[in-house]
Specification:
four-stranded antiparallel β-sheet, four-stranded mixed β-sheet, alpha+beta, 8 strands, about 40% helix
Length: about 180
């Protein structure tokens, strides 16, 4: 019910310029892996009766376990890594006002566009896997500091478009570990 209320009220809210790891963003990224686990896990309970299963049933059950875990676990691993990296990160982004700020906790990381040495943009090669929506962007500053923004905060395409005049290094990976 809480999710339904948030979705309905989200239609009437104005667009936010402050991005944090929110429940709805996490739910949107984890929807298909959670659905896959929800459908497959009840069948995996059959491993408790392994002594009573025939060889054919055991092979089918093992194949189902491989499919369910093979599709879901990589997304959960990426999600947990992104969550640990950006748990206390806040992105303030408004391209109309030429505003891009990053906060770690409550502390603003001071930088301007001229402080960016290069931007590293990493996306997933495949667009059909559960973890294909996980991507990240690393902002390399003149001070040597590297700020990592992940898709757990927001969709990073508008940020990449905003930073199009900085030296951008685009890469694609099969599995986008930041």
């Amino acid at each position: 019910m809480f999710v339904g209320l948030r979705v309905i009220t989200g239609f009437f809210a104005r667009n936010s310029r402050v991005y944090r790891p929110t429940f709805l963003r996490q739910f949107a990224l984890l929807f298909w892996p959670l659905l896959c686990l929800g459908v497959g896990l009840p069948f995996l309970g059959s491993f408790l009766y392994v002594g009573t299963l025939t060889a054919f049933e055991l092979v089918l059950l093992t194949a189902l376990a491989a499919v369910v875990l093979g599709f879901s676990l990589p997304a959960f691993l990426l999600h947990s890594q992104y969550y640990a990296r950006n748990l206390h990160t806040t992105l303030v982004f408004d391209p109309k006002k030429n505003l891009l700020e990053v906060y770690e906790g409550r502390v603003r990381i001071p930088f301007s566009r001229s402080d960016l040495v290069r931007v590293e943009r990493v996306t997933c090669e495949s667009k059909r896997l559960f973890w294909s929506h996980y991507d990240y962007m690393k902002l390399h500053l003149r001070t040597g500091e590297v700020l990592t923004l992940t898709s757990l905060l927001t969709k990073l395409d508008p940020v990449a478009e905003f930073l199009r005049n900085t030296p951008m290094e685009r890469r694609q990976k099969w599995f986008c570990i930041a």
